[in-house]
Design goal:
By secondary structure, this protein is of the alpha/beta class. It is 44% helix and 20% strand. It contains 9 helices and 10 strands. The N and C termini lie far apart (77 Å).
Length: 267
């Protein structure tokens, strides 16, 4: 195994010589003296252990080994140029591909508002977004499927860094003929005795609704578990119970006036 390796400078000088065909032209292009260029080519030949060029009356000619070496040297220089370009692009702004995981109760309602600004500020960045329950998102984050995830706090892992982004109000949704629909605002105690619908166990929102129901003395129904916020809203519209929805979802999906459910904020 050789102790020495070719330098990028030697490879660049060799490629220039091969392209120019003459030491004089190559040296002028590189801003070197001809003896300096000759020394560098000779050093490269010594490192590789082969003769790369032969001098002739009309310039230099590549040997068979030189032709093979030229192809590899050009590949190395091209790869280095791409790496340098990537480094420069990353220094100027986000680039590459970002894998983002998001819970279905957040991503669809906040990402569309952000993506247009993200693309405007970082046009070379590609975003791959996937929805999933928080527990699945965390597992995928830890094994490298996602670069980051967007989820409700807390995130139960000592191996991740959590950064709070915003606080989101929760609101009460009910059928249009529900008695609480006559109130402008509802208190937690108003839920006493009410049937409350929630998402399945895999979703963080369920734990919040369960705590609220226990505090209010409401009944968290386990025979009707929604698989999405839309499913919860549809069951509530049929007066199967009330539910708690995130404000971003309501703003995005529940129209005013002609909505199938009534939305009321908590006091």
């Amino acid at each position: 195994m050789q102790d020495r390796m070719p330098t990028l400078r030697q490879l660049r000088y060799f490629v220039a010589l091969a392209q120019c065909g003459q030491y004089r032209r190559a040296a002028a292009q590189l801003g070197l003296s001809q003896p300096s260029l000759s020394q560098q080519i000779a050093a490269l030949e010594t490192v590789l252990g082969v003769r790369l060029v032969e001098r002739g009356r009309r310039g230099v000619a590549l040997t068979p080994a030189g032709r093979d070496a030229l192809r590899h040297a050009q590949t190395v220089l091209d790869d280095v140029a791409q790496l340098t370009g990537l480094s420069n692009a990353m220094a100027k702004g986000l680039t590459g591909t970002l894998h983002l995981g998001s819970t279905p109760t957040i991503g669809p309602y906040i990402l569309p508002r952000l993506l247009q600004h993200l693309h405007a500020d970082h046009p070379d960045l590609k975003l791959v977004a996937r929805d999933g329950p928080p527990r699945d998102l965390l597992e995928d984050l830890l094994v490298g499927v996602h670069d980051m995830i967007l989820s409700q706090l807390p995130v139960a892992s000592a191996e991740t860094l959590s950064v709070p982004l915003y606080r989101e109000p929760l609101v009460l949704a009910m059928a249009r003929d529900h008695p609480l629909a006559a109130c402008d605002r509802v208190a937690v105690c108003d839920l006493h005795g009410q049937d409350v619908l929630a998402l399945g166990e895999a979703y963080a929102l369920r734990a919040q609704v369960a705590r609220l129901s226990a505090q209010a003395g409401a009944t968290l129904r386990r025979d009707y578990e929604g698989t999405s916020l839309d499913a919860l809203r549809q069951m509530v519209a049929m007066n199967m119970g009330v539910t708690v929805l995130p404000a971003l979802y309501v703003r995005s999906e529940v129209g005013a006036g002609d909505a199938d459910v009534v939305i009321r904020p908590f006091k």
